Amino acid sequence: MSKSEESCPTYGYQERDIYLRKLEVEAEAAQHLHRAKMLQKLFRILRVSHLLRRAIPDR
User: Fold this and answer.
1) What whole-number distance in Å separates Cα of residue 15 and Cα of residue 44?
2) What are the domain boundaries of the chain?
3) Is the pLDDT of residue 18 over 70?
4) Is 33 helix (H, G, I), strand (E, B) or coil?
């Protein structure tokens, strides 16, 4: 076993463990992306409703 093998961040892990962690990270990234898109839609709706409220004066 060489020194470079021991310094590898995945040294000692099973392939399965690495694959499962990869799936977890990808799922978290997908959740963050979905949340960001939903927030973007929400703020777009809020901005439009704010502009409409300003454009139509109260009676």
Assistant:
1) 43
2) 3-55
3) yes
4) helix
